[in-house]
Automatic annotation (TrEMBL):
GO biological process, one term: purine nucleotide biosynthetic process
PROSITE patterns assigned: THF_DHG_CYH_1, THF_DHG_CYH_2
Recorded catalytic activity of this chain's protein: (6R)-5,10-methylene-5,6,7,8-tetrahydrofolate + NADP(+) = (6R)-5,10-methenyltetrahydrofolate + NADPH; (6R)-5,10-methenyltetrahydrofolate + H2O = (6R)-10-formyltetrahydrofolate + H(+)
Family per similarity comment: Belongs to the tetrahydrofolate dehydrogenase/cyclohydrolase family.
Residues annotated as domain Tetrahydrofolate dehydrogenase/cyclohydrolase NAD(P)-binding: 139-280
Source species of the chain: Aquibacillus koreensis
Name this protein carries in UniProt: Bifunctional protein FolD
Length: 285
């Protein structure tokens, strides 16, 4: 068996073209979805992510505003800026690019963003809504993963899903979204004993640990669906995932590559959430 590769890059193009049409329709009604991004400091990875977000926003017609602030910016200054944006009715999405400098409390910043403009889906109110199965802004990477599975008509209901990694950004929320789709979910993490017993039993395996080739084909059940969230740069400069792709694709039924897998879907779902926020504000269903 050789797995079918799920290219998030291709699905992202399809979805962004649909969004472009939707935004054109909103603009004709005088509604322009707007995303404001705050970038603190000059972390190269963060700058690269922000550029990608701006480019995608431009493509679909979402207004994109960037505030670049020095790494010396105080927590108080950042909270003041967020408060101004919360009150600005032209802004539908607020995103503070993580990670933040050490002197700023990340959780305080996440909680300061209005839940109605929290297009990253990290505010405790939106996390609570997700936990209780309510409609809300879902965290973008997990939301992208579920969208990818559905695009291939992969059955989630009743399946055994194993999530390797328990970060607040990917691991925990993707497990919750899989549970919301009626999967039976197991979380594995750094303290899990005999992890392979779980990964080899998974119908759907989501790997998000940030360690190159953490799992190989030997750790995967025949016919499993493998979603690789990791992005790791090898010494030779190439990007690779948390799963050893070549051996895993001989065992899996579906697999995502790195790059061109989950990554492009994250920005796509951010745009989806921003458009949704604009529609919510103007009471368009």
């Amino acid at each position: 068996m050789t797995a079918e590769v799920i290219y998030g890059s291709e699905l992202a193009v399809t979805l962004r073209n649909e969004m472009k049409e939707e935004v054109e329709g909103l603009r004709k009604q005088g509604i322009t979805p707007k995303l404001t991004v705050i970038l603190i400091g000059d972390d190269p990875a963060s700058q690269s992510y922000v550029k990608g977000k701006q480019k995608a926003s431009d493509y679909v017609g979402v207004d994109s505003e960037l505030f670049k602030l020095p790494s010396s910016t105080s927590e108080e200054e950042l909270l003041t800026r967020i408060d101004q944006l919360n009150k600005d009715n032209s802004v539908h999405g607020i995103l503070v690019q993580l990670p933040l400098p050490n002197h700023i409390d990340e959780q305080a910043i996440i909680e300061a963003i209005s839940p109605e403009k929290d297009v990253d889906g990290f505010h405790p109110i939106n996390i609570g809504r997700m936990m209780t199965g309510k409609d809300t802004f879902y965290p973008c990477t997990p939301f992208g993963i579920i969208t990818m599975l559905k695009s291939k008509n992969i059955k989630i209901d009743g399946k055994k899903a194993v999530v390797v990694g328990r970060s607040n950004i990917v691991g925990k929320p993707v497990g919750q979204l899989l549970l919301n789709e009626n999967a039976t979910v197991i979380y594995c993490h750094s303290r899990t004993e005999n992890m392979r017993a779980y990964t080899k039993d998974a119908d759907i395996l989501v790997v998000a640990v940030g360690k190159a080739h953490f799992l190989s084909g030997d750790d995967i059940k025949e016919g499993a669906v493998v979603i690789d969230v990791g992005v790791n740069r090898l010494e030779n400069g190439t990007l690779t995932g948390d799963v050893e792709f070549e051996s895993a694709k001989e065992k899996a039924s579906f697999i995502t590559p790195v790059p061109k897998g989950v990554g492009p879907m994250t920005i796509t779902m951010l745009l989806h959430n921003t458009i949704k926020s604009a529609k919510n504000f103007h009471q368009i269903r």
